[in-house]
Design brief:
heterodimer, A: 337 residues, alpha/beta, Rossmann fold, seven-stranded mixed β-sheet, five-stranded mixed β-sheet, B: alpha/beta, five-stranded parallel β-sheet, two-stranded antiparallel sheet, 7 strands, 44% helix
Amino acid sequence: MAIKMYRDAVRDTIFEEMKRDSDVVVLGEDVVGGMGTAGGPEAIGGIWSTSGGFYEAFGPDRVIDTPISESAIVGAAGGLALSGKRPIAELMFADFIGVSLDQIWNQIAKFRYMFGGKTKCPAIIRCIYGAGYNAAAQHSQSPHAILTGMPGLKVVMPSTPADVAGLMRQAIRDDDPVIFMEHKALYGIKGEVPDDLDYTIPFGHARLTRAGQDVTILATGMMVGMAERAADKLAEDGIGADVIDLRTTSPLDEEAILDSVEVTGRLVIVDEAPPRCSLATDLAAIVANKAFASLKAPIEMVTAPHTPIPFARELESAYLPNPDKIEAAVRKALAYN
Amino acid sequence: MQLSREDLLEAYRRMKIIRDFEDFLHEEIAKGEIAGFTHLYAGQEAVAVGVCEHLTDNDKIVSTHRGHGHCLAKGCDVEAMMKEIWGSREGLCKGKGGSMHIADVDKGMLGANGIVGAGAPIAVGAAIAAKIDGKDENGKLRVAIAFSGDGACNQGTTFEAMNMAVVTHAPAIFVFENNHYSEHTGFEYAVGTDKDIASRAEAFGMKVWRADGTDFSAVHDTMSEVLEYVRAGNGPAAVEFDTERFYGHFEGDPQRYRAKGELDRIRAERDCIKKFRETVTEAKLLEGEELDKIDAEVATRIEKAVEAARKAERPTAEDVLVDVYIDY
């Protein structure tokens, strides 16, 4: 085990897989950085420092610094994947899926189905997402719900460095298109990462991060840590919570969710995105439909409000879920008779 | 470059297959038997065949919503295509794609595409893959070709793709088929660059060619030059072919936007197959009788494909759930 930052788990796993498999290529804006400048290649090295050293190790054919052209980046990833490569395209901010949505939604997600199952499309679209940096309405969003709703895509939302490593390696070796969502506010967190160069985590397997009998809390990405803090505080009062990190929203580990709710009977869903047509409402619908008899209280949802993401520190803090809001939701669910 | 008799016969056969395929569909669609939207390629055969005759299965193409011609020219199976258009589970895409999404990746055909302008970025990705794989034993690169029309030339995706191809020095070729209509709108209105598409590619830093797309020899000869240039590793290139669409934007389109007598005129003066026939027989390269024989063979082949499509196995409700993901 090595202690690593989340961002280094991203970088190191891709680097190791590029060494292992020459079909793996990366492309995106500033993945090299400094091209065409006096500073020269790697003057920047990727704005998230997730591709440092790649250009030097693998050269310009496999480390493709692109113009600011998100449609062409995702489309080229599709063309590379149909031509036998394993492209990893970086969308510097997940918010830019708006610019490239046709290539994600109408092209890479559907190739296999439209072509009668006669092809695979092993493309990864890395989306750097989430709030916490006061980057305001166009650089802070969590667009996982619309991507989860697109048949053909797998959607991954790791919350720890170890999960980054296991899920990224799985994504690279997977033959379907994968949306790999990296929370920008988690890039600096540290954790143990297995040294095994074949360490993978299969998709559709949630992780139980806290165990308790009284309530189930579902979360992804940055929300997992908040849910854990709320659970730890509730534990001081003798309230036990299952905290379930979904890890992947497509495929979804329904069994883990339903098994937990059948024991606790109370559910709090935490989601960084606005509440309408969201992951939270989707999970609530599944539980209401499949575990109705187990529920002892209405399902509580702690989400962002139905607004764009505001800029000012006070406003962004008010916008986001936090441990206090989660704790309050748990207490509300427990108070219901 | 003068082609051999065999190559000329093969080119004629392929153009004729596309023409008959589309003419048969035109009749069948009017009967109401075929589901969905269909966009026919008839009139533009010299472009698809004149381009694809130069390619192997290792070269890739990405097509458009008007894709039957490109598929057939790239070697997709006639009967499997017909079955696909009929929506059979025996179809090339098991009835999941239909007319607008026919693909055969093993043949280097990376899909017709229902989104105008979506193909060019995909072709650039395929071209980057070809660049990574490098030159073959003859010192030539494989290529990827994006077929686009005068409609797609106005999409931002096409601009992004052209720039990215230049920046990455990828062996991509942008083939613009200017049939003068983007859906129901004239290109003189919709293309802002003074009735010219190729100049756009030139502005992105590419070497460009222009030729009469109704003249098979012109298309074929032009593509010889283009491919020699791109396969040698000189980066991307573009070609604009001036061509004609014999049918409407989609089947059922009343084509009220056409000038009076326009369709009769282009069929009389700009029919690439008629022109090919006249040229090769006048030059005594081929005999009319040989071509008549191909006409008869092709007509029978298409009739048989239609019959087979009609009788082919229908998909079931269970098939809806298959092939979304590799492993579930």
